[in-house]
Write a structure and sequence with these properties.
mainly alpha, 2 domains, 0% strand
Length: 95
């Protein structure tokens, strides 16, 4: 009698299931990378405003001096607006 449980593997079927799993993982990693890049961009764009808010919050929580959050946020927002409107060239990039 032949042993039917010892059949050759279907390598084509195994390979396609691995490709599908790998494809899903790759798509997930691409989406995570796009979200991470967007977060870094948003943090760099709103960096001064976010920093002022966190510093004021930390100062309030630790019992430090009260900081006028509205004034600091308005100042950093105005600076960001003027920086956005100014033309950036290679001569004044880091200035």
């Amino acid at each position: 009698m032949k042993n039917l449980s010892h059949r050759p593997k279907n390598y084509l079927g195994d390979c396609s299931s691995r490709k599908i799993t790998g494809q899903g993982l790759t798509e997930y990693l691409i989406i995570v990378a796009i979200v991470a890049i967007a977060c870094v961009g948003a943090a760099s764009f709103f960096g001064d405003t976010i920093k002022a808010n966190f510093l004021a919050l930390g100062s309030d929580l630790t019992g430090g001096e009260a900081v006028d959050r509205v004034a600091e946020t308005s100042t950093s927002r105005a600076k960001a607006k003027t920086d956005t409107n100014s033309k950036t060239t290679l001569g004044n990039y880091n200035n």
